[in-house]
Design brief:
16 helices, nine-stranded mixed beta sheet, TIM Barrel
């Protein structure tokens, strides 16, 4: 790994670690003649909850593709269950055959416009940083606050317990980027263009090339590696759904795509192994060398990167089945909702509309004339204008943010989810108010999940009873249910490739340009709430 050479040697393993390269005799011998050995792949930044799988099932899913370690930001479950949820997640990962390292979530809520169950305080972050598997501060999403010198945000970066901080700076350039980095932030996974990634790398940032379910930025950023090499670059999946894992893989998919796109296999493997280990200071991971943990993939070729065999600490992975306590399941507290809850009285002559951008987390904004019926502003599928709502679900406040979206394609019915970054209230898109209400009320009955309604009744659903974020079912079952629901949505007119992941990010108030929370529409560029109507 350190010279990017292929060596024809034996690898000696003892007590889960590599003890030598050369020629050895051992009590057990695994013949891998003619195969390629590479270190286990490491995901430099991700959210386990976005897989919609319980952590034991997630481990089973990604280990099959050669991912042996992940660096996770658990801010999804933190928004729902606070520090208790993070500690439960950490405890659940103790006996997994997957190494799960955690960054202490820095922005719960992501901004003042979102409503989690409870905010994480500076004291909470400091407490988490004392846990042995918490290795730093997770992505600092409140980039406007950091750039403006907000004392409360800067305090999270200056605890004295760590100087390892991940970033989140979508589209941040120039003087603002310099200010953000000066605060001590070392990485970014939000770059979407070569020019943006290059500027960040020039200023010393680690660029985490992302290939998520909808934010597929890998091919756009690979020219950075072709021109300047793999230094200070690593792979991450951020938010990847079950269908992507089943059909394409995990970090190995990124290695494969990089090689197909002209990156050398050696450079691609470096970005999947030693680079993320070096960035995150995981000094015994990322290489096949003396003293390193024996996480080893046996590959038949350097094209598919589908491992013939995965060794975790020198042995085949052994999986465990975890139990989930009831307090992790009962997380939906919803005030009664009916069709009238979604009415928007007529009044403004122009309204702001969120424009969904395919395969991206960012959105646009349009100004249009509203469609009116019975004294209310309504959805207009003929104009590709659908209603969007975010319903507070942690404290049954009855608070609902209402707006409109376009470039969705939905012609009838509604769909909704309790996976709604980052506060994970209920987010719904719909043509009919009764269908949106049916989705919301079903969430309370099943403990959260994804629901489709048509004709005033639920027609298909995927329960996610673990914090309203994760299923307790096997990977393939979750995958098949999601595929069935996506097929139904496409039949209802939806044009988006990953409709549920796309829906979940329409509520994230720290990704430009226009978003919505239970408190209303958020202009992310101005970082303020704005009314639906424009006079």
């Amino acid at each position: 790994m350190f010279t990017k050479e292929w060596l024809d040697v034996d690898v000696a393993v003892k007590d889960g670690h590599v003890v030598g390269l050369g020629r050895y005799e051992g009590r057990e011998r695994l013949d891998v003649s003619g195969a390629y050995l590479v270190p286990g792949f490491i995901d430099a930044h991700m959210h386990i909850e976005s897989s919609k799988l319980m952590v034991d099932e997630f481990a089973r899913a990604v280990l099959a593709h050669g991912t042996t370690a992940v660096v996770a930001d658990p801010h999804e479950i933190a928004n729902v269950l606070g520090t208790e949820g993070i500690r439960w997640l950490l405890d659940s990962c103790t006996d997994l055959p997957l190494d799960v390292f955690v960054m202490a979530s820095s922005c719960v809520p992501a901004s003042r416009f979102e409503s989690p169950r409870q905010p994480l305080t500076l004291g909470d972050i400091e407490s988490l940083l004392r846990h042995p598997r918490v290795i730093g501060v997770a992505e600092m999403m409140n980039f406007p606050g950091v750039i403006a010198g907000d004392a409360s945000e800067l305090a999270k970066l200056q605890t004295g317990l760590t100087d390892h901080v991940d970033g989140h700076a979508p589209g941040v350039r120039g003087p603002a980027l310099n200010a953000y980095i000066s605060a001590g932030i070392q990485s970014d996974h939000e770059a979407t263009t070569f020019e943006e990634a290059l500027e960040k790398r020039r200023l010393g940032m680690w660029v985490l090339l992302r290939e998520a379910s909808i934010a597929r930025n890998l091919r756009d950023l690979l020219p950075l590696v072709k021109r300047y090499g793999p230094d200070r670059c690593a792979f991450c999946t951020d938010d990847r759904e079950p269908d992507f894992i089943v059909e394409h893989g995990h970090i190995n998919q990124m290695v494969r795509v990089a090689v197909e796109d002209g990156i050398s296999p050696e450079d691609a493997v470096v970005m999947a192994t030693i680079n993320p280990a070096t960035y995150h200071r995981l000094w015994r991971l990322g290489a096949i060398a003396p003293g390193y943990q024996a996480d080893i993939l046996v590959l038949d070729n350097l094209k598919s990167f589908s491992p013939r065999q995965v060794l975790k600490r020198g042995a085949p992975p052994r999986f465990v089945k975890l139990d989930v306590p009831e307090w992790v399941r009962q997380t939906v507290s919803l005030a009664p909702v009916d069709a009238t809850s979604f009415r928007i009285p007529a009044g403004p002559k122009k309204i702001r509309v969120m424009r969904v951008i395919p395969a991206q987390l960012i959105t646009g904004v349009e100004v249009v004339e509203p469609s009116l019926k019975d004294g209310c502003i309504v959805a207009d599928p003929a104009r590709d204008l659908v209603k969007i709502a975010v319903i507070e679900r942690h404290h049954a406040t009855g608070r609902i943010g209402l707006g409109f979206a376009t470039n969705v394609g939905l012609r009838r019915g509604a769909f909704a989810s309790t996976v709604a970054h980052d506060a994970h209230n209920i987010v719904a898109l719909g043509v009919g108010d009764a269908d949106m209400a049916a989705c919301a009320m079903r969430m309370a009955e099943i403990g959260g999940g994804i629901v489709i309604a048509e004709g005033g009744r639920v027609v298909e659903e995927l329960p996610l009873p673990i914090a309203g974020l994760m299923s307790d079912r096997p990977l393939l079952e979750v995958h098949e249910r999601l595929r069935s629901m996506e097929k139904r949505l496409h039949g209802m007119g939806v044009t988006t490739a990953s409709p549920f992941m796309t829906l979940s990010f329409l509520a994230l108030s720290v990704i430009p340009e226009l978003k919505i929370t239970d408190r209303g529409l958020v202009d992310v560029n101005r970082f303020e709430l704005v009314p639906l109507g424009i006079e």
